[in-house]
Amino acid sequence: MGAYILRRLLLVIPTLLGIMVINFVLVQFVPGGPVEQIIAQMEGGGDVFESFAGGGADVQVQTGANERYVGSRGLPPEFIAELEREFGFDKPPLERFLNMMWNYMRLDFGQSYFRSIGVTDLVLEKMPVSISLGLWSTIIAYLVSIPLGIRKAVKDGTGFDTWTSGLIIVAYAIPGFLFAILLLVLFAGGSYWQVFPLRGLTSDNWEDLSLIGKAGDYFWHIALPVIASTISAFATLTLLTKNSFLDEIKKHYVMTARAKGLSESAVLYGHVFRNAMLIVIAGFPAVFIGIFFSGSLIIETIFSLDGLGRLGFEAAVARDYPVIFGTLFIFGLMSLVVGILSDLMYVLIDPRIDFEKREG
């Protein structure tokens, strides 16, 4: 197992490098860099994309050494050259990429172009919101999916299995943002009941509350966003649990256990559960990372939560390259490490699994 882990760790390096290379190259062809953003704002154009959409007569593409930016008319070339030096664009792309990766290897992710804060500090500042959404959504999904999936497997083909499958399909089909808006309208003072707060992760007086009060206030604020992000997450896990149990129930060792006179509960939870839950429980890290990374932007926007989803979107719009590439490197590394942890979970739950023999 040690050799397998070492090989996987070594594969992290070229995989992460490939991710960074592809995204760095793609960014070079995307119009509207940070220099153009600043020029557009100074020219009174607001956002640089308004210029690309077809601005006024002053908008043109200039091809001089220091005047190749849209909307740079009237600005001195020295000023534009100074902006290039400040952002590091006076160097060739290859040199900028190598310098960036060298800094990342030393865990130096630089500073945001448009915020007076380091990328690491910025990520740590936004992390609690995304961790809250990802962690609680994953836990709730498992708490609902495993008992429901087991029950559906035991009652396979019955009325209970049929109507719960219908509910799962409906829940899976509802977009998360639409359900989030529905929750706001119903329970956050939209048109009906003011039960939950409309925005934020905590109240303004959170620091003055007791420990129990802080915990209650936190869960009060996070309830609706978590429910909105979980509504479709448990569908796949429920069906996965059900199918896994059905496969195990049909095996010979289950019939042998029943023939020995063991109760159905003892057979189900003493023999079937561990084998059936292998793929479900071992996939917990991957499920958490999936919920952590995906689908959080709209939920964060609707509930006015300042998390990593909004951070990534705002950085992409503003062309804040240190934030874009810094978060890409951090989250890419996290995803690759979590993949290794998922494999270790399989071995921990079922020692019979040997990845080295499978590779051989």
TrEMBL record:
GO biological process: microcin transport; transmembrane transport
Domain ABC transmembrane type-1 as annotated: residue spans: 127-342
One Pfam family it belongs to: BPD_transp_1
Name of protein: Microcin C ABC transporter permease YejB
Membrane topology type: Multi-pass membrane protein
Localization per record: Cell membrane
Family, similarity comment: Belongs to the binding-protein-dependent transport system permease family.
Organism name: Antarcticimicrobium sediminis
Single GO cellular component term: plasma membrane
Predominant location category: membrane
Transmembrane segments: 9-30, 129-150, 162-188, 218-241, 278-303, 323-349
UniProt KW keywords: Cell membrane, Membrane, Transmembrane, Transmembrane helix, Transport
Entry annotated with the keyword Kinase: no
Record keyword Cell membrane present: yes
